[in-house]
Amino acid sequence: MIPELGHFALALALALSLAQAAFGLWGAQRAQPRLMAATAPLAAGTLIAVGAAFASLMWSYAVNDTTVSAVVQNSHSAKPMLYKLTGTWGNHEGSMVLWVFILALCGGAVAGFGRRLPSTLQARVLAVLALVAVGFLAFILGTSDPFERVWPPPMDGQGLNPVLQDPGLAFHPPLLYLGYVGFSVTFAFAIAALIEGRVDAAWGRWVRPWALAAWSFLTLGIALGSWWAYYELGWGGYWFWDPVENASLLPWLAGCALLHSAIVVEKREALKTWTVFLALLAFGLSLLGTFLVRSGVLNSVHAFANDPARGVFILALLMLYVGGGFALFAWRAAAMAPTGVFAPLSREGALVLNNLLLCSIAAVVLVGTLYPMFADLILKQKISVGPPFFNSALLPLAAPLIGAMSFGPMLPWKRARLWPALQRLWWAALGGFAALLLCLALEGERIGPALGFAAAAWLILGAAADIADRIALFSRPRAALARARGLPRAAWGGAIAHAGLGVTMLGLAGMGLATDRLALLKPGQSASLAGYDYRLDGVGDVAGPNFSARRATVTVSRDGQTVTVMTPERRSFPLSRMTTTEAAIHTTWLRDLYVVLGDERDGGAVLRIHNNPLAPWIWFGAGIMAIGGGISLSDRRIRVSAPAAKLARGEAAA
Amino acid sequence: MTRKRRRLYLLLLCGLGLGSATALSLSAFQDNLVFFRSPSDIAREAPAPDRAFRLGGLVETGSVQRETTPDGRPEARFRVTDGHSTIPVTYVGVLPDLFREGQGVVTLGKLGPDGVFHATEVLARHDENYMPPEVAEALKRSGHWNPDQGAPPPAATWNTLEPTSASGTASPGGRSGS
Questions:
Q1: How far is CA A526 from the centre of its chain?
Q2: For A161, which of B31, B54, B178 is closest by C-beta distance?
Q3: Between A and B, how many residue pairs show a Cβ–Cβ distance under 8 A?
C-alpha cells in the first residue's frame, strides 16, 4: 500500500509542477497577480508530494519490503539500518527520487524565502524550477519507477554493493545533489532574467546566495567522495580523474566562476551577460554530470544503469533545458546593457581573469572527459585519458589562477595600481618562496610538490594579508579588533575559502611526496618505509555482520617505539560474492600511514604500505572552503535584500 | 570605452581562454592519450616501446605464476589472450581482489623489446561478472564470443576454438559494480 501511495505522490507532484510552470509563466507574462500568487503554494504542494514519495520509498527500504523490485535488487534484511535507509539513494531509481526531492526543496525555499522578490521574478523562477521538475518526474515515472512491484516476492533482497556500505558514501550523494540541484535555482533566475530582459545589482544579490550554497555543498560532496575513494578503494590515491569524478568537478568549476562574477554584477552591474551565461553553464554541466553518471555511457565503477532508454531520455532532457536556455540566451542577451566600466587592472579585471581561467580549466576537463566517448563513437578507437593528460594540461592554467588569487582581493574596484597591492603582499610572496626553497632543500629536486607548497603558503599568507590589511592590523593595531568585528562576513568568508584552497594545496603537495612499497612478509618479519617499521604479527579470520574477513595485524614502530597497531582486512561478502579491501589508516595529521593487505602465499602475506604526508589536509581544506562559503552566506547584505531594506528605511522615515 | 570596444575585448578574452585551453589539451593529448590494444592488434603492429597503452583480454587459464623479485616484492606473470594471439605480462604489485584466470582484465603499461608487457596497473572491477567493454569488443571482433549467447568460454580453450563454436552458459548480465 505504502509504495502505491509513493507512486501516486510522484504522479501528483508531476501534475502540481505542470500547473506551477503554466501559472507562473502565463501569469507573469499577462501580469495576473492571482495566477502568480498560486505558484508559491503549488511549490509547497510539490515539496509535500515529493517528500511523501521519498518517505514511502525510504519506508519500503526500512522494513525491507521484498515486493518492491528496487528493494529486492539493492537491499537485504541483514544490512544495518543505516545502510538500509541510505540504500534508498544508493541505486539509480532511488537517487533520481532524491534528485527530484532536493529540487522540490529548492522550489520550496524559493517560495518561502523569496517573498521579497518581485512577484513576476519569483513566479518565473518557480515556473522554470517546475519545468525542470516536470522533466525529471516524467523520467522517473516513465523509465525508472522506484515503486515497481515483483510477484511472487522473493525471500530476501540481493544486498547492496558492499563497497557502498560505508558512512562516507552514504552521505556523498545527498551533498553532491544539493550542489548539482542548487544550480537549478541560479539557472531558473538566469532564465527569468532573460525573459524579463533585465539584470541588475539586486538580481546579482539574489543569485549569489544560491550559487554560494550550491558551491559549498558541492565542495563538501566532492571532498567526501574523494575521501571515500581514498580509504575505501585501497589504492592509496584520492583523485583518479575518473569521468564520474570529473562530472562533479565541472559544475564546481563553473559554479566557482559564477559566484565570483555574481559579485561583479552585485557591486558594479558589469559582466551581466557573462554571469547569466555562467548560470546556464553551471546547471548545464550539472545535468551533463547527471547524464554521464545515470545513463551508463561511461561504464566506469559508478555506472548503475544499463538501459539505453534512460540514457536517451536524460539526453533529451539535457538538450531541452540546456539547448532551450542557450537559445533564449542568444535571443535575449543583447537586451542587457552593461553599465559598469572598469580598467583591466582592477578588482573586476581580476575577477574576469578568475572566470577566464576557471572556464578554461573546465573546458580542458570537459574535453578530457568526453573525448574518449567521441573517439569510441566516431573514430571507433578505444582510448583512455588518464591523470598525465590532466596534470600536464591543467598546470599551466592553475598556476596563474593561484598566482592571481591572492592579488584579486587586494585590488580596489574600477581602477587599481599594482604597486600598493604588491606592497601588502610581499611577505606572502616571501613565504611562498621560502616554502619552495625549503621543500627543494629537504626533498631534493621535486619540482611539482615544491610548487604546491609555494602555492599553499602564498594562498594562506595572502588570505591572512588580506584580512590584516582590511582590519589595519599593522597600521592601527589598537582598533584592529573592533574593525575585525565590523568587517562584513563576506570578506571573512572569501579569505577563509581562499585559505582553505591553500590548505588543500598543502595536502596535494604532501601527497606529491607520497611513497609506497610492496613487501611479502611472513609473520614476525618486518619492512620499513619512511622511518617507520611495519611488523606483520599474523593473519587471522574475523566475522562481521554480513561478511567474513581475513585480518592482518601489523605493529608499526619508529626508533623502537611502538606507534600503533594496524589491522588491514580483506572482506568477502558471500551474499553478493564480492571481495573488498579495507585499508588500515593511522593518521598523525602530518602523515597518514596506510596499509593494504594483499594476497597470502608461501606462509606469508603481501602488504602494500603507503606513507602519505599531509594527506588529511586535502579534505580538511575542502571543509574550510565550504565553511568560508557558509560564512559568506551569513553576510548581512545577503540576508537583507536591497528593496526590502529601502522599504524599511522608508517606513522609518514616515 | 565604448560598448563595441568592450564587447570586442570580451570576445578577445574568451577567444584567448578557449584558445589556450584547446592548445593545452591538444599538446597534452599528443603525449598522453592512452590507446587500447588487444593481443591481436599488437601481433599485427607492435607499438613503440616507450609508449604506454592499455592491453586487454582474458587471463589465460593456468598461466598465472606468482613469484617474488630479488628485493622481496611480489611479482605476477600471466598471459593475456583474445583467441588469436597471446601476450605475456609481468606485474609487480598486489593483484586486484577479483583477478581470476579465465576472466577479463585490462592492464596499463609498456611493451618491452622482449615482447613482454610490463604492467604498472592491473584493473579489475568489484564484480566478478564484469567484462571490461574494450575486452568484450576485442573478443567479439576476433569472432570468439557472442555476448548474447552467454558467458565467454574458458580462456584456456581460446587458442584452439573455432570462431563459430563459441557458446556458453546463461549470462549473469553485465552490471558493473558500485
A1: 41
A2: B178
A3: 136
The pLDDT tens digits for A28-40 are: 999 889 999 999 9
Tell me the CA distances in angstroms from B80 to B40, B60, B61, B135, one per residue in order: 11, 6, 10, 11
The SS3 of residue A360 is helix
Element (H, E) at A555: strand A548-558
Statement: residue A572 has pLDDT above 60 = yes
Alpha-carbon distance of A26 to A124, in angstroms, equals: 9
Residues B7-54 have pLDDT tens digits of: 777 778 778 888 888 888 888 877 778 888 888 888 888 787 778 888
Q: What is the pLDDT of residue A229?
A: 87
Q: Cα B4 to the chain's mean position, in Å?
A: 52
Q: Which of A386, A390, A518 sits opposite B74 (nearest CB)?
A: A518
Q: Which residues contact A455 (CB under 8 A, 6 or more apart)?
A: A399, A402, A432, A502, A505, A509
Chain B hits for A608, Cβ within 8 Å: 93-94
Chain B residue with CA closest to A393: the answer is B24
Q: Which of A163, A519, A602 sits opposite B126 (nearest CB)?
A: A163
Helix (H) or strand (E) holding B119: strand B117-123
Is residue B8 within 8 angstroms of chain A, CB to CB? no
Structure confidence at residue B160 (pLDDT) = 52
Q: Are residues A12 and A43 in the same domain?
A: yes
Quick check: A195 and A121 in contact, CB under 8 A?
Answer: no
**CB-CB under 8 Å, B92 with A299:** no
Grid coordinates in use for A640? 537583507
Which chain A residue lies closest to B131 (C-alpha atoms)? A299
B96: preceding bond cis by omega (within 30 degrees): no
Distance from CA of B118 to the nearest CA of A (A): 17
Are A476 and A430 within one domain? yes
- What's the complex ipTM? 0.72
Decide if B19 touches A, using CB distance below 8 A: no
Tens of pLDDT, residues A463-479: 999 998 888 887 778 88
Mean pLDDT calculated for residue range A583-594 = 90
**SS3 at position A534:** strand
Range of the domain at A87: 2-392
**Do A607 and A469 fall within a single domain?**
no
Q: Are A42 and A13 in contact (CB under 8 A)?
A: no
Question: Which residues from B are below 8 Å from A352, CB to CB?
Answer: 13
On whether both A482 and A344 belong to a single domain, the answer is: no
B177·A363 Cβ contact <8 A: no
Q: Do A546 and A464 share a structural domain?
A: no
Does residue A411 lie in a domain region?
no
Residue A300's pLDDT is 41
* Residue A401 in domain: no
Helix, strand, coil % over all residues of chain A, rounded to 5: 65, 10, 20
Residue type, A181: V
Please report the residues numbered 34 through 63 in chain B whose beta carbons come closer than 8 angstroms to any beta carbon of chain A.
34-36, 54
- HSE-CB at B43 with a 13 A cutoff on CA atoms is 13
- Among A250, A227, A64, residue whose Cα is nearest residue A158: A64
Q: What is the DSSP letter of A149?
A: B
Q: Do A384 and B178 touch (CB under 8 A)?
A: no
Q: What is the mean pLDDT of residues B121-129?
A: 63
Asked if the structure places residue A472 within a domain, the reply is: yes
Looking at the predicted structure, is the pLDDT value of residue A126 above 50?
yes
Asked if the Cβ–Cβ distance from A389 to B29 is below 8 Å, we say yes
**Partner-chain contact B74 A274, CB within 8 Å:** no
Q: A211 to chain B, minimum CA–CA distance in Å?
A: 22
Closest CA to A183 of A234, A259, A101, A86: A259
Q: Check pLDDT > 80 for residue A118.
A: yes
Contact check, Cβ <8 Å, B73/A392: no
Sign of CA dihedral A301, A307, A312, A313: negative
- Tell if the CB–CB gap between B97 and A580 is shorter than 8 Å: yes
